Amino acid sequence: MSTKKAVSEKLVVSDIEDVSRTALVKVWELPVRIIHWTIFTSVVMLSLTGFYIGNPFVDVESEAGFFMGWVKAQHALFAWIFIAAIIARIIWMFTGNRWARWDQFIPTTAYRRRGIRGSLRYYLFLRREPPRVVGHNPLAGMTYTILFLMFAVQIFTGLALKSLDAPGTYLSTIAGWVFDVAPIAVVRSFHHIIMWLTWGFVVHHVYSAILIDWEEKNGILSSIVTGWKRVPTDRL
Fold this sequence. Notes:
Elements: H1 3-8, E1 16-19, E2 22-26, H2 30-54, H3 64-95, H4 110-123, H5 138-163, H6 170-175, H7 178-181, H8 184-216, H9 220-226, E3 228-232
Antiparallel strand pairs: 1-2, 2-3
């Protein structure tokens, strides 16, 4: 069976272009790319506005109350955008292509579980060859699972804190229970700490993308814009 025929049995023909022993594969679909950049933009704006809300470092004199109100409004706006993007990504875990689905985040197969150790060794410079995957490697997938759990905590602590400004509203119904678990000060601390943990993930995420792109020359950095990666056909 030819390489082209073997590949076509696994991928939609319109999503792949054979080139010698490598293939140009459309890994990240448009919704995934839009969601990715929406989440990133939201995290940036939420971090900037949230940091100001906790530490108002700009002195705008008589308009201080108006400026703080404007910052809080922007924080709320991007919070809802962030929540919508997270929900959309979860939906796409069940409707997207094979590299977007939920089993890329939870290692359900023996093959994916075996790959965790190899991926860890690569990131620790104990292994020269990058993980032989097309989408997320097993360790990265598990990291995304932890990240989404962090996002869930961030969302509910944020909604709970927002409900303090509007007691008795739907926000209290949705997230008021958070204060039955922890006092306000602890909820605020968790909300703040997760912001820094998220930025720690962003730093590692960019580092690992640059590292693998440098090693494999597979276009992983540009793929989150174009959707396409160049990979060996024996991985497909």
